[in-house]
């Protein structure tokens, strides 16, 4: 059985998300409320060459800290653009890299307990370098390269805490031996 939606109302909206509150009926017949954050899917790119990953580090306001992660993003005002195009754009924007080959690894949900948002994961290979094209919100972004071993050490040290980055890494490891 599933949860039945009895009614739904939008309670908040901005350029990046909509929050709605649903009145629901659970399989046991009881009723309740469910808050849902609606966001467009984003892309996450794993730039990989010569045994090394290209990572970005930026300040994440909600958690008040700087962390390393794979490049990622969404084009909220252009949701109709195919994920592979968004991935190529985000990769160049954040790192200045252009991929000769962009391999789709899969689609995952970011936080399905409260959000509709998913992520399209791509492996970027045959990389060439160019100029970063950072947006205003990314002004403090720093790019760096690390080996696979250093990546795993950074996870253990708590420098990589982004769940999207870690789940994408797991997906990559299922597709390919590094």
Structure, explained:
The chain is α+β, with helices and mostly antiparallel strands and 178 residues long. It folds into two domains: 4-38, no CATH class; 42-175, Nucleoside Triphosphate Pyrophosphohydrolase, CATH 3.90.79. Helix content is 20%, strand content 46%. Strands 4, 5, 6, 7, 8, 9 and 10 form a seven-stranded mixed sheet that branches. A hairpin with a 4-residue loop joins strand 5 and strand 6 (65-69). The N and C termini lie far apart (41 Å). The model has no long low-confidence stretch (mean pLDDT 93).
Low-confidence stretches: none
| Main beta-sheet annotation | 7 strands, mixed
Instruction: Choose one word for the global shape.
Output: elongated
Helical proportion?
10-25%
Please state the structural category: alpha+beta
CATH topology of the largest domain: Nucleoside Triphosphate Pyrophosphohydrolase
N-end to C-end Cα span? 41 Å
SSE arrangement, N to C: EEEEEEEHEEEHH
Can you tell me the CATH class of the largest domain? Alpha Beta
Catalytic activity: GDP-alpha-D-mannose + H2O = alpha-D-mannose 1-phosphate + GMP + 2 H(+)
Protein name: GDP-mannose pyrophosphatase
GO molecular function: hydrolase activity
GO cellular component, one term: cytosol
């Amino acid at each position: 059985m599933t949860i039945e939606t009895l009614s739904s109302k939008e309670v908040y909206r901005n350029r990046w998300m909509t929050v709605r509150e649903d009145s629901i009926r659970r399989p046991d017949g009881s009723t309740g409320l469910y808050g849902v954050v609606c966001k467009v899917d984003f892309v996450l790119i794993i730039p990989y060459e010569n045994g090394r990953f290209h990572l970005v580090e930026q300040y994440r306001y909600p958690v008040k800290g700087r962390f390393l992660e794979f490049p990622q993003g969404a084009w909220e005002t252009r949701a109709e653009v195919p994920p592979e195009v968004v991935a190529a754009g985000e990769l160049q924007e954040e790192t200045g890299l252009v991929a000769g080959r962009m391999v789709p690894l899969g689609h995952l949900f970011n936080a399905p307990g409260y959000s509709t948002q998913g992520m399209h994961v791509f492996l970027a290979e045959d990389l060439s370098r160019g100029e970063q094209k950072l947006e205003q919100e990314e002004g403090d972004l720093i790019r760096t390269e690390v080996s696979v071993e250093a990546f795993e050490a950074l996870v253990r040290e708590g420098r990589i805490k982004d769940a999207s980055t870690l789940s994408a890494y797991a997906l990559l490891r299922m597709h390919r031996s590094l």
